[in-house]
Amino acid sequence: MQALMLLLWTGALLGQGSCQNNAGSPEEGSLDPDTTGVPVEEEDPFYKVPVNKLAAAVSNFGYDLYRMRSSGSPTANVLLSPLSVATAFSALSLGAEQRTESSLHRALYYDLISNPDIHGTYKELLASVTAPQKNFKSASRIVFERKLRVKSSFVAPLEKFYGTRPRILTGNPRMDLQEINNWMQAQMKGKVARSTREMPSGISILLLGVAYFKGQWVTKFDSRKTSLADFHLDEERTVRVPMMSDPKALLRYGLDSDLSCKIAQLPLTGSMSIIFFLPLKVTQNLTLIEESLTSEFIHDIDRELKTVEAVLTIPKLKLSFDGEVTKALQEMKLQSLFDSPDFSKITGKPIKLTQVEHRAVFEWSEDGAGTNPSPGLQPARLTFPLDYHLNQPFIFVLRDTDTGALLFIGKILDPRGT
């Protein structure tokens, strides 16, 4: 424990308050000459790029959605790619009148950014995070009730900014499910299994967000070192799972004493990285860590972690999710969308949101770009060996380094599956 404390530094890793209130600024604040000496926080240059600021906003929506899902599933794994859901909501806002648009924009944190071209910037964000080298696929779709007449003034910008057209249900559940599955297979290149669940009845508006990611480490793991090892579900129960290992892994590391967790970041190809939050004790509740997650907090962590050499073990992972996130979204101050929204920019008929479906697959294995660490990475000199074993419940965040966008987030209580 004392050895770990040697790696604690001031700044973003000193807990939730200093990270979240700092909002990405490394300074105490500068004095505004027009005030009586009250410090004014300067905006981090990273967030002066419109696409980065938008990515932070929709990622904060994603962290909110994750918290709601996690609190509703306290004893189960949670896997989400919130960007696909955020994209569906952002696209839907094109058809909302002011009252309903304001509700959507508040949930997406658009009310905190001054960007007259939200949807044009979103198009840029999607192009960036789904570039071929990222290995990340994401798609969203709006499905409407049968025989609905949709205004062309809604369809045109939807296609322009989000690259998608709405789907009108036929009223035949089997045919509608088949069509949605075919669309999903085409978007995900067959990487996400077809859903076997029945089409819900009484649909007015159905939102669908799907995503797939298979990570490629910058430095691959030696498959000969992968072996079955214990994963501690809690203090008393263990399971045997395939664990990858690297006795001389280069990773970025920090200890957060306020959250009582060890944080590590591993780089992936395509300017992406995974940040792990590993509690110091297997019995520790993950809620405190979850409540701290914001775009700004993760951005600060990214700046503060130090490169070290460590003995690393990490479970091989392939997780999937196919289900509703409707209830979680209703609890995120979006209930009005399910009650009496105003979507008169879409159609003259009263319609409302009835269901939000999410399908996601996430996996990593030993695969990587090379066997040697990136040149130029100089680990900090330690006077003690450092171990980082993901052999107990943990949280991970997959982040696009270029934009800061949250692409996947997971709570892994049992790596054997969902």
TrEMBL record:
Signal peptide interval: 1-19
Keyword Secreted: yes
Signal in keyword set: yes
GO molecular function per UniProt: serine-type endopeptidase inhibitor activity
Main location: secreted
GO cellular component: extracellular space
PROSITE patterns for this protein: SERPIN
SUPFAM superfamilies associated with the record: Serpins
Origin: domain of life: Eukaryota
Serpin domain span: 63-415
InterPro entries on file: PEDF_serpin_dom, Serpin_CS, Serpin_dom, Serpin_fam, Serpin_sf, Serpin_sf_1, Serpin_sf_2
Protein name (database record): Pigment epithelium-derived factor
Source species taxonomy: Eukaryota, Metazoa, Chordata, Craniata, Vertebrata
